Amino acid sequence: NLQILLRRRPVGAPVPEDFEIVETPVPEPGEGQVLVRARYLSLDPYMRGRMSDAKSYAKPVALGAVMEGQTAGEVVASRHPGFRPGDIVLGGYGWQRFSVVGPERLFKVPEHDPPLSTSLGVLGMPGLTAWVGLEDIGQPKAGETVVVSAASGAVGQVVGQIAKIRGCKVVGIAGSKAKCDFVVRELGFDACLDHHGDLDAQLDAAVPEGIDVYWENVGGKVQAAVFPRFRDFGRMVMCGMIAQYNEAPGADAAGAPPGPNLGPVVRKRLRIQGFIVSDTGWPRYGAFRAQMEGWIREGRIRWREDVVHGLAKAPEAFIGLLQGRNFGKLVVAVD
Ligand code: NDP
């Protein structure tokens, strides 16, 4: 079994030496378990958190253990009555070719229509994140203005398209002209701003009316530019702050970068709420998937993936994710 282990905890940005690639025997499923052969591995920003032993909502990956991740692939052996060899599933575990998993978060999914890799993206955890966060927190209404950061990425692309379906004006923020062109032309956002340019001036021009919903994926300078532009009763969906993931642990307290002045929260009656998709998302996966598949069939939701070939390339691809090198949902085609 080809596996990628966490060799050491990164200080700052991860480097290839933080990972180790090993070959081990293929594991056997125990009673009630299933052996999955991964075809695709999802690479996601949260994995940076699992590499660190700073206090968080989930346990860190132990040193020497296989890196955490979700895969989609084929059941090759089963000791669970609900799954048979040949079943195509979402829910394999880890940066590895073969994994043994229980049935709790294992879902049978189609192999081709839509393609299996989408079960890690638009029809997977990132899509579910967008759907849950908008439904529970953002609650965009027709005619409102929605701003989405990391707009061309796995979560951002879905957030913006759902907000368009809801009848909103949607403005993305992304890291290059090519990403912005994609967001406007392919995904149908009303505008997209490049955060390497003068974001204040671009926001002045794009959202003079102010912002009703800001979907926060990035933090840092982008957040500082957006925050003062909320309208009364605005909602800030705190999904992630990837620009800060490589900062030293403890940046929550001492050493944190100066944040926005929170005074307007009271005056404007803003709602700022964080969420973790795994808290309430997976029990609603069936409802989410049915709605999203419907939108895809109707041509109302599109997606872009960034596929890297070969499991051994995962560390390098993941390092790039934290620097904006991916363009679309980042997945590894394992073989
Ligand atoms: P993406 O596919 O959007 O990839 C990450 C993108 O972030 C990069 O492509 C880059 O886009 C942007 N980025 C990276 N570094 C920086 C930086 N220093 N400054 C500004 N932008 C940067 O990832 P996901 O869609 O998977 O995740 C987006 C966010 O959602 C992350 O913060 C993630 O942690 C969060 N998330 C939260 C979940 C939850 O349950 N709360 C679940 C899933 C994801 P660009 O080139 O456009 O800058």
Automatic annotation (TrEMBL):
Keyword set, alphabetical order: Oxidoreductase
Domain Enoyl reductase (ER): 14-332
Any Pfam family the entry gives: ADH_N_2
Domain of life: Bacteria
Gene Ontology molecular functions: oxidoreductase activity, acting on the CH-CH group of donors, NAD or NADP as acceptor
Record's keyword annotation contains Mitochondrion: no
SMART domains: PKS_ER
PANTHER family, alphabetized: PROSTAGLANDIN REDUCTASE, PROSTAGLANDIN REDUCTASE 1
This protein's name: Enoyl reductase (ER) domain-containing protein
Lineage of the organism: Bacteria, Pseudomonadati, Pseudomonadota, Alphaproteobacteria, Acetobacterales
